[in-house]
Write a structure and sequence with these properties.
Layout (H helix, E strand, L loop, with lengths): L1 E2 L7 E5 L5 H4 L2 H10 L7 E10 L2 E9 L6 E8 L3 E7 L6 H23 L2 E6 L17 H4 L4 H18 L3 H14 L1 H5 L4 E3 L5 E8 L2 H11 L3 H13 L7 H8 L11 E7 H12 L5 E5 L6 E4 L7 E5 H6 L2 H16 L2 H18 L2 H42 L2 H11 L12 H4 L2 H6 L7 H9 L9 H14 L2
Parallel strand pairs: 11-13
Antiparallel strand pairs: 1-2, 2-6, 3-4, 4-5, 5-6, 7-9, 8-11, 9-10, 12-13
Helix pairs in contact: 2-3, 5-6, 6-14, 9-10, 11-13, 13-15, 13-16, 14-15, 15-20, 16-19
Length: about 475
């Protein structure tokens, strides 16, 4: 964001995007239809105009502020990066209102990017590693952690407990606890059996995206949908493995056999040095390097498994690499390393194992008195306790990421991109909606609400010196009481 000077001068924002030039030009028309028209009851939009100047498409409109007569004149330039200019009509218009308009646009850009990604050919590679097809889900070992739910882990205990009890009788719960504790201790090694393991010798992930129109994409699926693995293999063999720079001229030799004429403005090539990013974050936290696993999935997320950095692993998806810029991504990595630094995965897993053993060997007779309804309420209460602790851990990791990595603005932007669906509809920030925000806190999700995490990070204006756990506990209580 830049400001040209003077109270009524133009305030300029930029939005980094993974869109290719051929598609970014459609953004003004998309915003007119899905933002200005759909949210006209939320914002007072007037004087909307689409126009083209040179090779760029533009969208201009005015946003009037109720009961004041003041307005903000907004101009969006559809380029790379996307530029957003705002000229307030009065110095009385708060900067916070302009920031809200920017955030509105950022969220809608994420919606547009997802639509464009759905009609694109997408390939990811690690040189020297086997080819792995892109999936709509994370691999089976880390899917539980990406699901943002504690249900899977908790009810797995309940199911397995009866199996072990039948087979091993009184020793069953103890044996199951030992098995699951071993699983928790070595879960980092299990995660390392994922799609790709990143090493210092193989540090980079190469992301290729070629955008099509809707008509071209439908035609491609009709004739070549089953040939995507073949295209992926040819790209790797002829371009990636030879370490040639990926260009349209090289791609043309492959695409032409599948009815695609490569156009440079539709091609996006991104190389992410994952090893260096994790190393930078680990050095900032003064931690040893964990194993680095890349899951080739469209899910935009990251997670950790294992009891410590030395025995743990960080799992990063290609989806989040495609979506975030490097400074945004390293903040997310810092958040995950904080989990390993503070042994969060093993603590939460250990709590569940401890409750499981206590329930069978000590609390069983007392719980039996409660009946089925009481037992169910007991399980819900314990699960709520574990989830609440998880929310504090997540909030603590947010502060740690800013404390050790810095750059809260980049971290907040990264969270907006990852969690944009949870921030929609955009009128969630309005007072009439805020009473429903407490329901987000009560969800059985070990993460605090996205709006709370982002607002909290954006308000950080000075170095963090206080103990981040206790600060996060207090902040979460305040956030719940005053959503």
């Amino acid at each position: 964001m830049t400001e040209s000077g003077g109270l009524l001068s133009v305030i300029e924002y930029t939005i980094d995007t993974e869109l290719v030039p051929a598609n970014v030009g459609y953004l003004p028309e998309f915003l007119q239809k899905y933002y200005l028209s759909r949210y006209k009851g939320y914002r007072n939009f007037r004087e909307v105009e689409l126009y083209t100047e040179g090779d760029r498409n533009y969208l201009t409109y005015k946003v009037y502020i109720p009961k004041t007569g003041n307005y903000v004149e907004v101009t969006l330039e559809a380029g790379i990066p996307i530029r957003l200019s705002m000229r307030p009509s009065s110095a009385d218009i708060p900067k916070a209102f302009l920031d809200e308009l920017y955030e509105d646009t950022l969220l809608m850009v994420q919606v547009f990017e997802e639509q464009m990604a759905n009609i694109s050919l997408y390939f990811a590679y690690v040189q020297g590693e086997k080819m792995v097809p892109e999936s709509s889900k994370a691999n089976k070992w880390v899917d539980i952690f990406f699901s943002r739910s504690m249900y899977g882990i908790f009810f797995m205990f309940i199911f397995l407990s009866y199996i072990f009890l039948i087979v091993f009788q009184d020793y069953g719960p103890l044996l199951l606890g030992i098995v699951l504790l071993l699983f928790a201790l070595f879960s980092g090694r299990l995660a390392a059996r994922g799609d790709w393991v990143i090493t210092e010798d193989r540090p980079e992930v190469i992301l290729l995206q070629y955008s099509l129109t809707m008509g071209e994409y439908k035609q491609f699926l009709k004739t070549n949908a089953g040939k995507i693995p073949e295209i992926r293999e040819k790209i790797y063999r002829d371009i990636v493995s030879t370490r040639k720079k990926f260009t349209c001229e090289l791609a043309e030799k492959i695409f032409v056999d599948y009815g695609i004429e490569c156009q440079p403005e539709r091609l996006s090539v991104k190389t992410v040095n994952v090893w260096q990013l994790v190393k930078r974050a680990a050095e900032a936290f003064r931690l040893s390097m964990p194993k680095i696993v890349v899951a080739n999935t469209e899910v935009a997320n990251a997670a950790v498994m294992g009891p410590s950095p030395r025995l743990g692993a960080i799992i990063i998806t290609t989806g989040i690499m495609q979506q975030l810029e490097e400074e945004e991504l390293i903040s997310v990595i810092g958040h995950e390393l904080s989990h390993l630094k503070n042994h969060d995965p093993i603590i939460l897993f250990g709590l569940v194992i401890l409750e499981f053993l206590l329930r069978f060997y000590i609390f069983a007779s007392y719980i039996a008195v409660l009946g089925y309804t009481g037992f169910l309420l007991y399980l819900i209460a314990f699960l709520a306790l574990v989830v609440s602790i998880g929310k504090v851990f997540e909030a603590r990791c947010d502060l740690d990421a800013v404390k050790y990595i810095g750059n809260p603005k980049a971290f907040a932007n990264g969270l907006k991109k990852i969690a944009y669906k949870k921030l929609l509809p955009i009128y969630k920030r309005e007072p009439f909606y805020r009473r429903y925000r407490r329901l987000e806190w009560l969800a059985f999700d070990p993460h605090p609400p996205a709006y709370y995490r982002i607002n909290r990070i954006e308000k950080i204006s000075q170095p963090i010196t206080k103990h981040t756990f206790w600060a996060s506990l207090c902040d979460n209580i305040k956030g719940f009481l005053k959503p």
